[in-house]
């Protein structure tokens, strides 16, 4: 996608990033009616995301197509992928991989990286080099699989996926 531009996320992106998360929410809810997701919904609200964007612990990249945000990649503490969401109309076109490659190089430390992957995203993260690091979890009404990528530091120290 030659017209896609990746840039740092800013406070004004909060509404759009929240909308991207909300667009996908039913794919990872444990219950179709969304019961038990209050904490998750609050954490994905525009106000919460604005705080992440402006705070010290989180960093975001966004992908834009014709000045429209079509994807978001957020990390916490340079070690945990917090958000990776792509607009429905451009999924399957390499936007997630583009954000991952940029995020890996610009936002993440060289050590191990973790993510709580939705069931539908496990295969994508495996293509990025992650492995399943635990059993499927249901928390705050959301179902996910903990995954891990062994970084350069761990690989040098001999850590291998278990």
UniProtKB/TrEMBL annotation:
Keywords: Acyltransferase, Transferase. PROSITE patterns: GNAT. Gene3D superfamilies: 3.40.630.30. Pfam families: Acetyltransf_10. The keyword Acyltransferase applies. The keyword Repeat does not apply. Its EC number is 2.3.1.-. One of its GO terms (molecular function) is acyltransferase activity. It is an enzyme of class 2 (transferase). This is GNAT family N-acetyltransferase.
């Amino acid at each position: 996608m030659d017209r896609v531009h990746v840039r740092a996320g800013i406070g004004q992106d909060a509404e759009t990033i929240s909308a991207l998360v909300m667009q996908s929410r039913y794919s990872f809810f444990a219950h179709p009616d969304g019961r038990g997701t209050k904490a998750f919904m609050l954490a994905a609200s525009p106000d919460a995301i604005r705080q992440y964007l402006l705070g010290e612990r989180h960093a975001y990249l966004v992908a834009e197509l014709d000045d429209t945000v079509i994807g978001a990649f957020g990390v916490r503490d340079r070690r945990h992928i917090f958000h990776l969401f792509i607009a429905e109309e451009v999924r399957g076109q390499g936007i997630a991989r583009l954000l991952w490659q940029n995020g890996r190089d610009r936002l993440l430390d060289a050590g191990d990286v973790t993510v709580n992957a939705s069931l539908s995203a496990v295969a994508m993260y495996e293509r990025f080099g992650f492995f399943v690091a635990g059993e499927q979890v249901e928390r705050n009404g959301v179902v996910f699989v903990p995954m891990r990528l062994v970084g350069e530091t761990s690989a040098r120290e001999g850590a291998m996926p278990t």
